[in-house]
Records
---
Amino acid sequence: MSTESAAQVQLKIASFNLFNFIAPPDAYYDFNNIYSEQQWQQKCDWITAYVNQYRPDVIGFQEVFSTDALRELLNAAGYPYFAVVDIPEVADEFIYRSPVVALASKYPISAIHACRAAPELAALLGLSADFTFSRTPVRATVVLPDLGPCDCYVVHFKSKRGQFSVEQAQELLGVAPSAMQASFAIEAAAKWSAAIVRGSEASLLRYLIAQRRAATAYPVILMGDFNDTLHSGVLSSLVSTDTRLIATYGEQGFDDYRLQDAYQLFEQSHYSVTAVARPATHYHLTQGAVLDYILLSNEFDPHNDQCLAEVEHYHTYDRHLLNPEYARDSHSTDHAPVMITLKIRQ
C-alpha cells in the first residue's frame, strides 16, 4: 500500500469552540474585551498547536468573530478550503456580538449552504414563520477520500442564557425586585425560553438534514456546540426513534435518516476501552457536562449494511480545563475540542 493510500484509510473530524475568536482592536460584547497583541498571538498559537498535533482533516468551529483571520490561520496550517455563511453582528462600532460558525478542510468543498428554518414547520412548532437560528448553521459538502461527497454541518445551538432578563420581566409584569419568589419563577421562565429556542433549532435542523439526505443520499456529519446534553428532552429530537414510523417504513427506512452520537458508536465497538466515564467538554464552576458532539449517519455505523467507515477513536482534548498552565493555556478556550478518527472500510 502506498503512503498516500495508507493516509486515506483514516479520516479525522473535529469540533472546536474557539471561545471569542476576535482579532484586536475589535472587542467582543463589551468595549473592555479587547485582546492585546500578545494575548491574541497566544490564542492563535494555542489553536495552531492543537491543529498541528492532532491534524484533523475537517474541523467545525464555533464562536468565530474574525472569519478572515481564522481563514488565514487555517490556510497557513494546511487547510486551503474554508466555509462560512454569516457575519457577526456589530453592536457599536468596534464591539461585536453574535459570533458565527465556520468549517475548514484539507479536502475540496464542492458546495456551501446556509441552513434556514422552514417557515411552515416553524409555524407548526408554534414559532413565528420568520424564526431564525441563533447562529446560522453551515452545510459544507466536503469531497472526502474513499467516501466521496459528505454533507458536514456545523452548529452552535442557543445558549442557556434566557431570551429576556429578570429585570425586563419584572418591569413588564410590575413585579418589585424585592419579590423574591416571583423573581425565582421569572428566572426559571427565562431559562425555559432559551430551552424552547434550542430545542426548536434542533428539530428544524433535523428536518433540513432529512430533506437534503432524501435529495442526495450523501453521508452526514453534524458537529458543534449543542449547549445542552444530547439526550435531554430539549435535544432528543436529533437522535429520537419513532416506532410508529419504523412500523410504517421499516427499519432500513428509518436508518437512512438516523443520526447517532459518534461516542456511542465508538463505545459499542470498543467497550473495554470506554469503561471510564465520558469526559466533559465544558465546566460551570466544578460541574462538568458534555456539550460538544459529533453525530453521524448510518454510513458510519458498523452494524448497518450501508457502512462505509467506523469510529476507530474518540478524543476529548481537556488538558487546559483539568490541568491548566497559565503560560500555555491562559488564552485557549473554555470548551474541550472533540475529535473522532474514522477508519474507512476498504
Note: The chain has one domain: 3-344.
---
Amino acid sequence: MSDQQQSATRARTRQAIIDAAIGLLAQDRAATLGEIATAAGVGRTTLHRYFADRAELIAAIDAEGELRLEQAITRARLDQGTGAEALLRLCQEYFELGDLLSLVFDELQGTAEVPCPGPDEPATGAGGSEPAGQCTPALEAAVRRGQHDGSIDPGLPAYWLESILWAHLYTAWSVTTQGNLARYEVLRLTLRTFEGALAGPR
C-alpha cells in the first residue's frame, strides 16, 4: 500500500471514529470509548492510536462541529435571494446537521451566556461560547437585505432573529428525538413557523 493510500485509510478511519462518537454521544453522553470503537467498526487499540483519551476525542468532535456549522453557512448561500429565503435556507442546513445539533444544544446549556450578542456587543466566532457563524456579518447582511426587500420585519434585529432561529431548531430537535413526527414533517413545521417569525405581524 502506498503512502497516499495509507494516509487516505487513516483519514477514513479517523473520520469513522468521529462520526460514530457524534452519533453515540448525541444519544448518551456517557457512552464509553469502547462503545464508540465498536460503533466505528474498529478495536479499542485502534481508537487509541488516533485519540489518546476521551478529552482528545471530544476536542476533535468540537473541531468537526465547528467545521460542519461553517459548511452549513456556506451551503445556505446567505448572499443570494431575499433575506428571508437566505435565513430559511440556513435554518434547513442547520436542521440537516442531525445528531450534531444535540451536542450543540448540550454545549449551550452548559454555557452561562447562551443568548446571542446584542447590537452593541461583539459577535462570537467559532472559538466562542455560541455556535460558529452566530451573528456573522453574512447573516446580518442577509437580515438587512430582507428588511430592505420587505421579507423580514425591520423591527427585528439580527441578533434577535439568530436567537429565534436556534430556539426553533431546539424545538425541532426535541420533537425529532421524541419520534412522534416524521423528520420531513418536523422540518416543514420548523420552516413555516420560522418564516412567520421573520415576517413579523401582518
Note: Confidence is low (pLDDT under 50) at residues 111-134.
---
Amino acid sequence: MSPLDRAAAYLQHLPPAISGSGGHSATYRAACALVQGFALGETDALPLLQAWNHSHCQPPWTERELRHKLRSATQSSAHAQRPLGYLLNEDRPRAPTARACRQPSFFLTRTLGTMNCEHETNRQAQQRQDWPAFRPLKPALIERIAQQRGMRPDAVDLAQRHGFLSGGLVDGQACYLLHEGSFAQARRLDGEPFWRADGSPLKAKNLPGSEGAFIGQRWLGSATHVLLVEGAIALIEALAAWALVDAPQPWAILAATSASSRFARDPALLHQLRGKHLRLVPDADASGLKAAAAWLAELDAGGISVDVYALPEGCKDLAPLITPSGHAQHADTLSQLFMTEAK
C-alpha cells in the first residue's frame, strides 16, 4: 500500500469525533497521525482528513477548521520524541506471544498505551452522557450566587448569557455549574460543600468525565488582550472585576481549571493565543505561584506576549477586590489590571 492508502486505512480505525465528547482532541489526534506519523504535507493530508471528517465527525468540521488543525499538528512539538513518519515503518499490531509479553516491543508498548488512552477517552465520554441537564438560572438564583461570592449580579448574569454558567442537580443538590465543552464544575447553591467518601469537605466538584485545562476559550475570538486567572470560579470573578472598571480595550478572560493545568495539553490553544497580549494574574500562594511559573515558561516558549500582574499584599486572588469594600479600597488596582500596559 502507498503511504496515502496506509494513512487512509489508519484513520478508519480511530474513534469518532463527537462534539461535547472530546471531539476536538479526537480530530487533532487524526491530524497529528497524518502530518507527524505519515509525514504528509497539508495538500495530501487534507483530502484524507476531509473524508474521515464526513464519516467520523458529528457534526463535521469546516475545511477551514481542518486546515487549522493540520497546521497546528505540523507546528506542535508534542511528537518531537518520535521521528517524523514514525507510522510508516510500523507493522500492523499483532496479538502478543508469550515471549513478546516478557519482552514487549516498542510498537506493542505504544499500541497498548494508545488503546488505554482511547479506552479512557471513551469512558469519559460515556460519563458525560450521564451529566445532569443544564438549566438557565432564574434571577433569584443569580442574585444568591452574587451574594455568596460578594460580587455584582450582572457579572454572574454575563457568565450565564455567554454560556459558561447554568444550574443543575448534582448528588441530589441544587447547584450552579461552570462549564465549557467537556469540562463542568459544580458548586452548591446553598453554599455548603460536597463530601468525599472519607468525610472530608469539597467546595467544588468536577463532574465525572470532565476534561479540559482552560475555559473561556470561545471568548478569545479577535480579542487582542487576554486575562489569565486560576480556577473555574475565577472566570466569574474576573468578569466581575471587568464590570467594575471602564476598560479602554476589549479583553477576553481565560481561566485555568486548576493549578495543574498546562498549555502543553492544548497546543491548539497556544496557537490561538499567538499574536495576542496575555496578562497573567497568579494566585498568591505556593501552588498558584508554581503554576504561574510553569504557564509563563510555556507561553514564552510558544512566542506569546505575556506579562505578570501581582495582586496587592494580603489578596490571594481577585475575590477580595470585587466586593464593595474591596473595590472602594482597590479601585486603582482594578483599573490598572485592564490597562493595555502594566504599571
Note: The chain is about 45% helix and 15% strand.
